[in-house]
Design goal:
The complex is a heterodimer of chains A (195) and B (412). A six-stranded parallel beta sheet of chain A has the order 1-6-2-5-4-3, sandwiched between helices. Chain A has 195 residues and is an alpha/beta fold. Helix content of chain B is 49%, strand content 12%. The radius of gyration of chain B is 25 Å and the shape is globular. Chain B folds into two domains: 182 residues, Rossmann fold, CATH 3.40.50; 138 residues, no CATH class. The longest helix of chain B has 22 residues. The chains are: A alpha/beta (195), B alpha/beta (412). At the A-B interface, helix 1, helix 4, helix 5, helix 6 and helix 7 of A face helix 4, helix 13 and helix 14 of B.
Chain lengths: 195, 412
Amino acid sequence: MPEFSSQPFVDIARRLDVRGGHSWLAVLSPPTDSAVALDALQTELRSFLQVPTRVLSLETLTFEELLEAMQQPSDDVVVLAAGADLAPDTWSSLDLMRSALERTGPTVLWMAPDAVARLTEFAPNIRSFIGPSIYIAGPDGGLMGEAERQHRLKELEQHYGLSSEEIVRRAESKELPPEPHFVEWLILLGRGDLV
Amino acid sequence: MRAFNPTAPPGDVIEAGLVCEDLQRFLFRNLAGRADLEPGSQQLLVGGVGSGKTTELLLAERWLREQGHVLPLYIDISAETDLSSVNSGSLLASFGLHLAQRLPADLQAPTPNPDRSERLKKAYNKVREYAYGKEEILSSHLADWDRMMQVSMEAFRHVFTFQPQVVRNIPGKLKPKPPIPALSRDIQEIRAPLDEFLAIAREILEDIVVIFDGLDRLLDPTKFWSVAHQDLRLLREIKVSVVATAPISVLFGTSLGQSVADHFDRVHHLPVIAFDPENGSLRSVLEKRHAHELMSRTEADTICRYSGGVLRDLISLARDAAEEAYISDHHSVTAADVDKVVRQLGVGYLRGLGPEAIKILFDLENSGSFRVDQPANVELLLTRRVLEYSSTDFRAHPALLSVMPRPEAKGA
């Protein structure tokens, strides 16, 4: 059976960054340690995009509560968490209210892999908003493996013609602009404290 | 790349000049022209998810506004209320509120008119109560308990036992709470203030046109009709032209859908646009957004083909392909980037399809046979796995076909 593409959380953040406002995207949670992975995603989005990130549970909020939470504020990042057992009726209700869910900030649908079938079946309008942007949380629940991390660091060093040591030095002396790539770079070096 | 945002508000996209207004052969002018020329006319705009209905409606609204003598009201009803629990009366409530909000701005009378202001105020209060409900003081006398008890206990929000007043919560139409008031009483309640608004509006403007978007979210024609039927009947009586969206199941499938369509003066179908490399209408959508700066014509054509002609899928594939190139540090979109996003889209459509549905799709692909009166097949249309190019031309979504596992040959 064909599968969705797997993406580390940093690439999810890069995608949202390049898209700008009004963007939708879905991430499929790993089968184990889903809560830990969701926490890691939230941290990654907050650090990379430099905006507050909230997680809202689709299981517990009413129509009015969800509406209010989505719009106040409407420009931060919202992660809508949908479990595998989210009922078809709830998906249908969400689909009906899609216009009311539209906001300026990015919306990430955090779903159990089994939930995609229900999304397509009972919420075709939301699925249409997400389009091809459904990704499996990358290795280690979206956290990069060591080889991937080294590869990405090398890419950044080549692209900017700078070494990682130089990036740390500039960040420590407050000479580094708060660009998303530099934020990513510092996080990959384990120096999120300098962001 | 931000020109390729498939979820940007359509109004912003129109404003930015990124829409090909002739893509649907100026359908919006047909919609708007008829609504303008025939007061009280009712038109349906039917199309699948992501076919560009909202864009056409907003273009129609703009065209009407430009005529000068029409007050067009665009209302996305799904953004205003929870359609899963609302019943008839909500369209009228929403129409009344929008009209009330627009009148003071549109009636720029050269001299103050206290009488008109008072009439507007009274009518507005009634519409507002109708929409959002009210608390009605029933009585301060014990004898009125009898009257109170006739009302369902669910309708009571507060009963102040330590105060002489008894307060009944009367539900409105936009925040429905059970029990829903009887329909005939509802219609009578809203008609008088609407007539008042319209009389005032028509002192200066000739016509009112209301455009209801979002009703297509009610995928089942039965639900669509239960929300729309009585409201549309009153709007026709008070000579307000209506343009409304409807689900594609109104055109295909159940006999109810067909009878719903019969209630309208005109039903416009917004089909998907077949990819034709010679014609290039889909390519023009990408070109309008400067796709040539991101990808070659070959890649653009591949995206057009695999979008199946669904406009939102087209924009999504182009955006995601460009994003894929960015993530992979490619200088422009490559064939591999396009393949990857087509596969992503296809896998999304594939999930949840059982063997029966897959067989239907292969039969459609191989022989062109598709029974549109079968509920399972209508489901495939509603979820965009099957696309309608005309009322008789159906095809499986090409992105889905590209990832669908082929059935094993017999005896293999």
